[in-house]
Please model this.
Amino acid sequence: MAIEKKEAKKELIKPQDLTICESTQEMLAKARKDGVEISFDRAVAMKACPIGAKSACCKHCFMGPCRLNANDPYGKVGVCGATIDTIQSRNFGRMVATGSAAHTDHGMEMVKLFRNVVEGRIKDYEIKDTEKLFEVAEELGIATKDREVTAIARDLANELEKTYTQVEGELPFIKRAPKATQETWRKAGVVPRGAMREIMEMMHRTHMGMDQDYENIIKQISRTALSDGWGGSMVSTEISDILFGTPKPVQAEVNMGVLKEDQVNIIVHGHEPNMFDSMLASVSDPKLIAAAKAAGAKGINLVGMCCSGLEMLSRHGVPHAGNFMSTEAVLVTGAVDAMAVDVQCIKQGLGKVAECYGTRLFTTNPRAHIEGVTHIEFEEDDPRDCTDLVVEMAIKRFAGRDVPVQIPKQKNIGVHGFSHEYINYMLGGTFRGSYTPLNENIINGRIRGVAGVVGCTNPRVKQDWVHVELVKELIKNDVLVVQTGCSQVSLAKAGLLTPEAAALAGPGLREVCEAVGMPPVLGLGACVDNSRILIACSEMVKAGGLGESIADLPVAGAAPEYMSEKAIAIGQYFVASGVYTIFGVTFPIVEGTKFHELMFKRLEEQGMGKWGFTPDPYEMARLMIDHINKKRAALGLDKGRERVLVDMAARRAVEA
Model:
């Protein structure tokens, strides 16, 4: 289809004021010139509802919708009498339920895939990391000695399935948390039973006429969120590692410059690694490569976007074209011959943009169709039927390209793939893998603490800018950063995921990075892989010297440009686990209400973490550093500690 030019909009904001990504700036300018609208301009035209942004409205029944005044939150109540605190807690609970459901559904599909591989019903995938299979099985009390791999895997599938289907008891991975953290949860009554059970109860409690006490509702909110972080997401990550391999550091390229004008360019965008893994096999097929060359291409160039792209970036070094807010902009290059999408974070606007530039867009998952977009069902028992067809359609589009191709030149190299297991090895070596060296450097003050910077990009703020400025401030102040999701791409584009970036760190963190040969920012993978951060926190407690629970650690978290309900669920499971967690952009709670005080103060008094909010990256960094300093002081680390030379006898006494 030829590009249809639209009448130019008035008062368009300059691209450089909407994003710091030079590739996206270039493509936004081109899209405007071509008369094609993408999400940056739609966000400017679509003003956010001020009442909804503060969650001061309720539409859970048909006596309303009821709108309360965020400036006078206790001035009136809903038709049923619901107060601002009841309305806000219900709305927040439903956000957590939806976000948790997204990760839980994804995790259940991974369990199903795992079981079918183990039972031999699916032949295209296999267990690639048997060592991790044994480790996880033993951790959950499954015998591994003198047993067949398939028997161990079958028992593990049965055990992990409880994460979703169990209606009583505790999730299997709850035992991974420090004992003091577990006791905090039990005292508060928030230990999750099974993910589906908690999500169902969360939705029931928020129905009209049900739970109308915000302090009681928060218990179910935390229970539901914990079923995601220590359940749905954690299971998904572990099974993905077992099936597709546990990531290890790999150097890879990001940004739109990874596209190649003389090759067939295929982008995979979404969240499920199985489709991308099959696509990797398809683009490596000699017959399809020969077909591409017969069409005039030098080869087939497979590129990732968003979280499934991060999965393959971390495991195989597959190039990555950009994060969430660049998914439409990359199509404006005219170089993308096909984009295949599966689930989560897929903009419906992709359909129109793809049509304007002749890109073949395909949905592949039965849970996520787009009106007017061609659907090719991805079947796990015969995955190549789908992925081979996508490649064939991409080759046809390459042969008939009829739009100008303009590929931004920017390419950035970074080091990705820092799984919990590799961090353990990196710090302690093969025989004494341990978080003890990290703890020691926190105790002696070289590293002030650890920050998790994660999440999406959002057109309500300048793309990538808050992520980058926040992280620069943190590492400058000797805070080691770990991160996942779209943030990883933001920081990779800024050059912060290379060992050379240690030059931007404070003297203590720089010394540690140079000694280990690591970047000051460790990319852990997709947004579902936030569970790796939970495990890392638990290992820090286990290694000793930094308190008894996650809430004692000198750590903090942030999602500076979040945009989805999944992020709310992630934030709440970190808060419930004991981590001070700050969000940017906006926050769906009215300040000055009792529910706000509970979330931003009183949860911490119960032994958990607490929420924070600011859209400013420098204020965000200050708040996180202040919190880390507060935790250091509580541990007695603010006074410093004399460096001691340790002899070999003392080293042998250190527990691995």
The two ends are 62 Å apart (CA to CA). Residues 417-653 form a domain with the Rossmann fold fold (CATH 3.40.50.2030). The chain has 25 helices and 16 strands.
